[in-house]
Amino acid sequence: MTIDFPKRFLVETWGCQMNELDSQRLSSQLMQEGILPTSDPQQADLILLNSCSVREKAAHKAYSRLGEYRLLKEKRPGLLLGFCGCVAQQEGDQALKRVPDLDFVIGPARVGELRQILRQRLVGKRVVATGFPDAAERNYDMDTLSREGTHKGMVTIIEGCNKKCTFCIVPSTRGPEQNRPLDDILSEVRHLLDFGFREIELLGQTVNHWRDPATSADFAVLLDRVASLDGLDRLRFVTSYPRDFTQEMVDQFARHSNICPYLHLPVQSGSDRVLKMMGRGYATELYFDLIERLRKSRPGIALSTDIIVGFPGETEQDFQLTLDLLSRVRFASVYAFKYSPRPGTAALRLNQPEVPLEDADRRLQTLFSLQREIQTKINQALVGEVFEVLVTSLGKSAGTLTGRTPCHRVIHFEHDTATSYIGSLIDVKVERAYPHSLIGSTVLPGWPEQIDRSRSSLPIVS
Question: Which of 352, 379, 406 marks a domain boundary?
Answer without folding.
Answer: 379
